[in-house]
Structure formats: C-alpha cells, structure tokens
Amino acid sequence: MADLIQLFRVNSAIGCVRGRGWQRGHPCSGPRPSTRPSVAFWRGRDNRSVLFELEGVTMERGGRVVLSQVSAGLPEGASCVSGPSGSGKSSLLRLLNRLADPVAGRVLYRGQDVRERDVLELRREVCLVPQLPALLEGTVEDNIRFAARLARREPDVPRLLRLAGLAGSFAGREAGRLSVGEQQRAMLARSLALEPRVLLLDEPTSALDEEARAAIEETLAGLRRELELSWVLVTHDLDQARRLADWVVRIDGGSLVEQGPVAELLVT
Prior knowledge:
- By secondary structure, this protein is α/β, with parallel strands linked by helices.
- Helix content is about 35%, strand content about 25%.
- It has ten helices and ten strands.
- It has helices at about 1-10, 40-45, 90-95, 120-125, 140-150, 155-165, 180-190, 210-225, 240-245, 260-265, and strands at about 50-60, 65-75, 80, 105-110, 110-115, 125-130, 200, 230-235, 245-250, 255-260.
- The strands form two sheets. Strands 6-7-8-3-9-10 form a six-stranded mixed beta sheet, with helices on both faces. A four-stranded antiparallel beta sheet has the order 2-1-4-5.
- The longest helix has 18 residues, at about 210-225.
C-alpha cells in the first residue's frame, strides 16, 4: 500500500504548465449563459451511461475558491473539460478520483459518491495521467511492473508498450533518458498496467511539439477502439477537444459555462 501511495503522490505532485487561454472574440468563447443546463436535462439528451456527476461542487485551494457550485455530467466514452488557463479544469479533474475533495457538494462515479469508495481502489480504476511525466527511477519495464504489482497483476509488457505506441525495445530503456514524448507514452503504459476503466488526462500533450502531439492523439484514439476505455481530457485547445472528445464541459473562472455534445458546442 505504501508503494501505491507513493505512485499517486508522484502523479499528483506535478505542477501546471499553463498554456495559451481562450481569446476574447474567439468563436467558441461566447458570453456565459444566464442559466446552466442541469444534469437531468443532459441525461435526457444522451443515451450513454452517466460516468461522473458533479452536484453543486465547490472546491477551495489555499483558502481560495477554485470551483464554485459546479453541477455537470460526464458520460461514458470520451469527454473533455475545457476552458482558459486558471479556470479550474485540472482542479475539477482531481475531484474525480479523490486527489482532492470538495468543501461542498458531491461527486458521483457510476452513481456512487466517490467518498464511499476505497480511495486506492478508486484510483486504480480511475487513473490519472498527469500533465508532465513523473516516471520512477529505473527502466520503462520497471515502471510498468511497479504499477502492475500495485494492482496484483502480471503485466504483459510488450502488449502495454504496443498500446502506448512504443516498440518492445523500450522495455529496457532508462526512463530518465527518454524524450518528453517517449516519457508520456511510458506514463501511459504504466497507467494501463493498472487495467483502469477510466483515464484522467491532464493536458497530456501540452509539453509536446506538433508531431509528438499528433502521435499521442493517434495512440489515444487507438486505445479507445481497442480497450473501450473512457477518458476525461483536460485541455485549453479547442481543436484538440474536437478531435478527441464527444462531450465537453466548459468552465471559466471556476464556474460552469455550458455542457453538451462537442459537435454542437464547439462548432468551427
């Protein structure tokens, strides 16, 4: 259990590298609606199962309110939390597997309050892939086996590397000598060793160049097809949200702006 706590501390101790926020006049950055769509309204529009629900959630960090009375739903499949830098996106993501708890309201996962779940079990099932790689010392295979041991599983290392878009030869590579893009893929392989049902992706391509970003996006799309994983992606990049998500929750200043299908809300 100490090893698992260490892994989650490593994953959660990563600071944010803030990207370029939305700009005034952007076609997808219209005025904030005067009313917020309810989760009940959303559920009636979509036939997919509800994965997460936030009910009147308020969150504070260092005595400052970072989320205020947020009520939103995230369905199974590919969802996105989008907004400008500093809007509370990553804070919301941390609530979904209890890396943080709200001061008011509640978060439901598959209909159950997350605070009723064993926290380590929840974090194995709902796994965070942080914004910046946080690999342990040793080889890529060492990292994969470390995670698998926490879940009491024997990993198929070649398969996990393939799923993450890495050749089998990467198993013996030292994690600290990989490029940032390779480290991000190794992080993904390590996360998959836990056999999660949901991935929480905190701006996974923000530190990558265009070519590496496209490769990671292709890998994520392949994972969704092959493993039928759900994920919640945090991004300030609306084009990436269009490419990778079906459902979007937009927040700004810690408050919900709108939620709905990407095809309707993020029209080019």
